[in-house]
Amino acid sequence: MNDRLRTALPVLSPRREPVLIPEAWYPIAPSTDLPARGRRATKPLGIMRLGRRWVLWRDEAGAVACMPAACPHRGADLAQGRVRQGEIECPYHGFRWSAGGECVALPCEGRGARVPAKLHVRERPIVREAHGLIWMWYGEREPTAQLPWFERSPVEGRRTATHTEVWEVSFTRTMEAMQDLHHFPFAHHGLDPWRGKAARLDPYECRVEGERIYQKAALALEREDGSTEPVVHFQLDCAFPSGIYLKFSPRVDASVALCPIDEQRTWVWACYRVETGLGAVIDKLSARLSMWFEFAFVQPDDRRMSASAEPQACTAADHALVRSDAAIAAWHKLRRAHLHAASASAQEHSPLTAGSSDIEQSKSSQSM
Asked: Which one Pfam family would you cite for this protein (predicted)?
């Protein structure tokens, strides 16, 4: 079956803009959440992403399959079912579907029974597996954008540590928080060794290349004569719309990938890498310690500030941005370009029409 309905994209409203950014890849789950072997391989994965509930599993070849979690028969949650020979089985009546969306078994009707056309699943998102993550394409057209990822970013492996959590914060606010470099002396004042004296962002550089935003900056002590003394340096790069790379020092860096769950919540995945020069075991322990400190003491401040900000589904027009917010301004500019392109496409082809293609599947050659 090659016919597949696309997920309908919202048309821009003069009063409200969509939270989801169209024509983009989003990370939806770690590959390790969907093992290819062992007892867990028979258990599908149910997730809420991009405003919808999905079920994921692996077919007999080990490729990731994905479809809406609601059973086409009578709406039961397929994520509560099981995987049998690479097919997803409904927990309610035992109907089964292949990775291609074809209904292949109706136990109540017997072998060889005619399968009603409505039982075949046409809406099958395009998914891809790379960098230790499973990605979903959100758009009307075939994937045109590259994954929001930097090749230098750390991935899950024997020397790194990973963490996932859910923020009760809109995707827009979460992405703003992840790109903010000048909040540290205030939002994290309890951790600031300079007691707020290193508040000036100088030097600060932000450049945009296509859909990549690059920041280099330093928090600096400002003397009475106006001169500055940089005390801590940052490198923070954004792969639009949802990928972040941070370099804290020559030996410590991190990658962050985010996905909207719905309009109010965001799924956050992070990976830390610490190169101690003392071997893989010490690197792993150091990365775990760094990750624990980050999400136990640092990120709760960002999360609290972002959750209290209004409006949650914000645009650049809701802000009074300054020079040090250049990356946030650039991200919103890219966001508007995607939304306008989707709006123009919807108006040109209204009503939205269905497209078709096969599920794309590729596996990363990087170690996991």
From this structure: Rieske
**DSSP code per residue over 138-189:** ESSSS--SPPS--TTS--SSTTEEEEEEEESS-HHHHHHHHT--S-HHHHTG
Q: Residue 222 is encoded by which pair of tokens?
A: 């400002």
Report how far residue 242's alpha carbon sits from residue 260's, in angstroms, rounded to the nearest whole number.
9
What tens-digit pLDDT sequence spans the chain (368 residues)? Answer: 556 666 555 544 444 677 889 999 999 999 999 998 877 889 999 999 999 999 999 999 999 999 999 999 999 999 999 999 999 999 999 999 999 999 999 999 998 899 999 999 998 999 999 999 999 999 888 898 899 999 999 999 999 999 999 999 999 999 999 999 988 888 777 776 666 677 788 889 999 999 999 999 988 888 777 777 777 888 999 999 999 999 999 999 999 999 999 999 999 999 999 999 999 999 999 999 999 999 999 999 999 999 999 999 899 999 999 999 999 999 999 999 999 888 776 655 443 332 333 334 444 433 33
Contact assessment for residue 88 and residue 44, using Cβ atoms and an 8 Å cutoff: yes
Q: Are strands 200-209 and 24-30 parallel, antiparallel or unpaired?
A: unpaired
Output the pTM of the full model. Answer: 0.86
| Order of all β-strands in the sheet with 52-58 | 45-49, 52-58, 64-68
CB 110 within 8 A of CB 325: no
State the distance between the two ends of the chain, measured CA to CA, in whole angstroms: 32
Distance CA 315, CA 53 (A): 26
- Pull the structure tokens for residue 16: 């409200």
Q: Are 158 and 297 contacting, i.e. CB atoms less than 8 angstroms apart?
A: no
40: left (phi over 0), alpha (psi -120 to 50) or beta: alpha
- Give the three-class secondary structure for 218: strand
Every domain of the chain and the residues it spans: 24-140, 160-341
Q: What does DSSP assign to residue 113?
A: P
Residues 6+ apart with CB under 8 A from 44: 55, 56, 57, 78, 79, 81, 82, 83, 88
Q: Report the topology of domain 160-341.
A: Naphthalene 1,2-dioxygenase Alpha Subunit; Chain A, domain 1 (3.90.380)
